[in-house]
Fold this sequence. Notes:
Strand order of the largest sheet: 7-6-5-3-4-8-9-19
Helix content: 25-40%
CATH architecture of the domain at 15-196: 3-Layer(aba) Sandwich
Low-confidence stretches: 159-168
CATH class of the domain at 15-196: Alpha Beta
Structural class: alpha/beta
Largest sheet: 8 strands, mixed
Radius of gyration: 23 Å
Oligomer: single chain
Strand content: 15-25%
Distance between the termini: 39 Å
CATH topology of the domain at 15-196: Rossmann fold
Amino acid sequence: MNTPLADLHSGPQTLSAMLADSCRRWPTRPALTCLWRSLSYAELDAESLALAGWLQARGLQRGDRVAVMLPNLPQLPVAVAAVLRAGMVLVNIAPQCAAADLEFLLKDAGARAVIAIDEALPTLCEVQHRLPIKHLVITTPGDLLGALRGRWVNHRRPVFHAQAQAASSPQALPGTESFREALDQGRKAGFRAVDVAPDDIALLQYTSGTTGRPLGAVLLHRQIVANLAQCQSWFEPALRRLPPQQALVTACALPLHHIYGFSVALMFTLRLGGCALLLPHPEDTAATLKALAQHPVHCLPGTDALFLALASHPACASVDWSGLRLAVGGSTPVQQATAQLWQQRTGSALCEGYGLTETSPVVTCNPVDAPTWTGSIGLPLPGTELRLLDDQGQAVDPGMAGEIAVRGPQVMAGYWQRPEATARVMTADGFFRTGDIGVLDDAGQLRLVDRKRDTIFVSGFNVYPSEVEGVVTQLPGVAECAAVALRDARVGEAVRLVVVKADPSSSYPSEADVRAHCEAHLSGHKRPRLVEFRATLPKTPAGKLLRRALREQS
């Protein structure tokens, strides 16, 4: 099915042109607010061009890949805008990424530069000598927050790595500049305008493939811009309800290095000349609600876990939710209990959507003016076609379950340097096979039936069991293991690991041994919340693991 869109091609056709246009049209408006400090569009313009000038002065060219490892601080939008306006390719990486994952991502992307928070320095130090990266910019949380606020934030900030303070000097790695020094040098060097084309790569956004190895979804400027235009068209009924002359204010509680937060929270807001309220530690529910009480918002993209945490907290009542026009849930399925509690506590209905990294990301969404949560994942966005396919790639009959396949202007160009992986998910006529199973009801609403290949969704991130199992089975004494999802009210789902020892009578490995091994080889969100030991794993007569049986037993 297809919902036509009058014109996906009006306005700027690249993210770089879009950002420049917003800075030109609304120079005095606040573009970003974080910890009581705002940056105007004029300041975003100046700082991003200075950083872009620094990248150019270091010899980086149009098309070069630049990795950004930053939490939700003003430095992230500045770095994003700098990379895109210089015609370079943005590679978003979680700042807490484990060393093994980071080394793979940087090598696979061929990144020539990294812009990172200082807390990532220990990990960068661990892998830097094995990588060709020569240009690093290191920032502290207080940069861009003003002198007094910045020093206060740096003094009070949590330290997530024991070595962070010892390694927090830019001199810890050769060829490293501080964020402020890079801005000063970039201003002196000047920025040379780059003619960025719609078919240029804007973003390498990594997701895991069916083998568990990360795959870089190649997202072109025109594909992300098209999805922003699709979202703007779909969200129009909510946007029309903003007070006259009031710019959109969006709470950025999602990690902005994730495609959902990057596109639906940050880039969508900057496209409309709105203000992005950056929340550096959204896992601190009390602090998040305090910020929402001080800065009333109109738009709140989030996950089931985020909405449940906010609605369940006593401080939820201290927030004036009357200005909220759009609370959109995605990344993980919204649970009925969450939707009901959210509407009860805030008076706002949760509007659920569906998307993937490979689709920039939004594919479907419920009508934003629906009075209550519907339980479906909505209708296709304008210009988007859906098919439901059987195992042979043929369309299923109406009302039958099938694999969701998507065709539209937001679908990726392919996987970075992985033509075989691309061919596996793309049909001959341009549909992307998502691997998710859905059903279309009589009203044309899409309902999600099953998850993609047993993926575990932790705080909006995909965790693939095969990757966790591949790491744990390398531990001596482990015969086999299985990773499945464990429902968790805080992060949506967590990893539950079931281990079978090679020698059941041995005390090795213990739970502590397994956890230590995982801490050394897996990023935080991939580590098991629960570790169990069993004599056997449930399997079919053919020897295939029965993950469903394990999930049901939990």
